[in-house]
Each structure stands twice: as structure tokens, then as C-alpha cells.
Amino acid sequence: MSQAQQIKVSEKAEALLDNVAENKVIGRKEVKIKIYHIGSGTPSRVDVKKAISNFLGSKEDLVVVRKIFTSYGAGISEAVLHVYSDKETMERFEPIHLIKRGTKAEGAGEAKNG
Hints:
- Keywords: Ribonucleoprotein, Ribosomal protein.
- GO terms for molecular function: structural constituent of ribosome.
- Belongs to the eukaryotic ribosomal protein eS24 family.
- One of its GO terms (cellular component) is ribonucleoprotein complex.
- It is a single chain.
- By secondary structure, the chain is of the alpha+beta class.
- It has one domain: RRM (RNA recognition motif) domain (Alpha-Beta Plaits, 2-Layer Sandwich).
- 22% of the residues lie in helices and 37% in strands.
- The chain is built from three helices and five strands, in the order E-E-E-H-E-E-H-H.
- The chain has helices at residues 45-56, 87-93, 96-101, and strands at residues 6-10, 13-23, 28-36, 63-70, 76-84.
- It has a five-stranded antiparallel beta sheet with strand order 1-2-3-5-4.
- A hairpin with a 2-residue loop joins strand 1 and strand 2 (13-23).
- The model is unreliable at 109-114 (pLDDT under 50).
């Protein structure tokens, strides 16, 4: 890649595509991005998933955010994502808690009865 490609993550954050590696053995793309969010907080995993899936033309539920690392006070984050070709492969290789972490839970914020 001669020039880094820009991806709009949210209203206050943009990302630069750092690297996309095709892992043909597993059937996924391993994506590294740098997110610039100067003056605002780290973007949510949901926003990052949505931006990468739109950029790569894949389904949002086949994208897993492995990690987002932000240095204190820097306003720049590094993220590692895996983009799968099918759901079965994703469920075989990714931990369930990471698959669930990147989705909006229904009834989030409601008190549990019990």
C-alpha cells in the first residue's frame, strides 16, 4: 500500500488502515488500524466494527474486534480486528466473549429482576 486509506469511524474519529493480511488457512482477514480521536474518548467497538465492515464490504456480524489499545492522553488508538468469511469459522476460532462484546445487547442498562 503506497498510501494509507482513511476510514470514518464516528463523528469525532477517523482511522487509517495500517495493514490487512489475508489468512487463507483460517479463512479470515487480519486488519490493523490506527484510530485518531483527538479531544474525544476511544470509539466503541460497535462503531469500529461498523466502519470496518462497511469499508471492506463484509457483514457486520462477521467482524470481531480483538483489541483496542489507547495510550493515556494520546487520542490515538490501535485496533486489531478479524474479518471472517463465514460464521462457522468465526465461532471455531474466536472466544465467545469477544464475539458478544462487539454487539449491542438487547435490554442493556435495564435492571435485572430477581
